[in-house]
Amino acid sequence: MAEIEVLLLPNLKIFAVRASSYLMERWEFYDTLFLSFPREMEILVADLAEGRRTYESIIDEISYSGIIPEPVEAWEYTAEPLLKVLPNLKEIHPGLKIYCYGTKKHQFLLNNIAIRAARLTLQTAITGKVDVEGWRWLLEESSRVGGKLLAEEGALISERARGRCLCLSGLTGRSLGRALSGEGHLVRVRFIGGVYHFTPLEILERRWRRGPLTDEEIRRFVRYHLEYLRDYIYLSNNRDSAYYQWLHDKVPWLRGRIDTEAVRFLDLLKH
Predict the structure, then answer these.
(1) Cis link prior to 71 (omega < 30° from 0)?
(2) Does a structural domain hold residue 239?
(3) Would you say residue 59 lies in a domain?
(4) Would you say residue 68 lies in a domain?
(5) N- to C-terminal Cα distance for the chain?
(6) Which end of the chain is more exposed for a tag (fewer CB within 10 A), N or C?
């Protein structure tokens, strides 16, 4: 049995930066670090952490090898802070074991689902109509694929978990934590901290997993999702600044908790 802390990170750079700081502040509490990157990257991650290769060279290798779906820059946007902290982390904690628990196959399955969602959203933008049955199929497929990935990732982590472990996960990490707990591990799940509200598409996916949705509910959330893309993502310098502008405009009860200085800094980041 291992002690596993599952840390939930929304898919924004600001949370990856927070996670990097968290690692440097609490390194002595962990024997093993699990990253949600594909296992096919594990040697590259080790080379980077041990100082045998530069960050730029492993990004070039990842792009060349096709481990991550194109455009690699979209993945790198949030991966960069976590990758760049590894050499410093390994220097102060040489005994730390670092594993990757995703797979290339998983990356491409999820990418295919994202492409289908983009096509359905574009169809609504052009025609003004929501393909409800198309979205029902996609939500069911996303749920099916997510369940399969969860089982495989949980099994890999459980097999390699030793001592005190930190597992960096996305917002589905609570389900991962329950799976690991079911394997007999002592699991604690926590959010990295900061202000976060689920986006329209995330809400739609979560509602779908809880039970059937009416046609009107699907139409409503798809239109909210289209508005988020059209009025924020497409008009912003990067996904973080888009998200926080949307949060400010659409979730007024959280406005007072937004770090405006951090948001201004985010405007300088690349996509």
Answers:
(1) yes
(2) no
(3) yes
(4) yes
(5) 41
(6) N
Q: Helix %, strand %, coil % for the chain, to 5?
A: 65, 10, 25
- Angle between the N-to-C axes of helices 104-127 and 215-228, in degrees from 0 to 180, rounded to the nearest 10: 100
Tell me the angle at which helices 13-26 and 72-92 cross, rounded to the nearest 10 degrees. Answer: 10
Residue 147 covered by a domain: yes
The range of the structural domain enclosing residue 91 comes to: 3-201
The pair of structure tokens assigned to 194 is 């900061």
The alpha-carbon radius of gyration of the chain (Å, integer) is 19
What is the model's pTM? 0.93
Rounded to whole angstroms, how far apart are CA atoms 154 and 173? 10
DSSP H or E segment with residue 101: strand 97-102
Number of domains in the chain: 1
The CA distance from 49 to 90, in Å, is 6
Instruction: Give 10-residue mean pLDDT values along the chain (271 residues).
Output: 95 94 94 96 97 96 92 94 97 96 89 95 97 97 91 94 96 93 95 92 95 95 97 93 93 85 66 51
List Cβ neighbours of 214 (8 Å cut-off, separation of 6 or more). none
Strand 97-102 and strand 32-38: pairing?
Answer: parallel
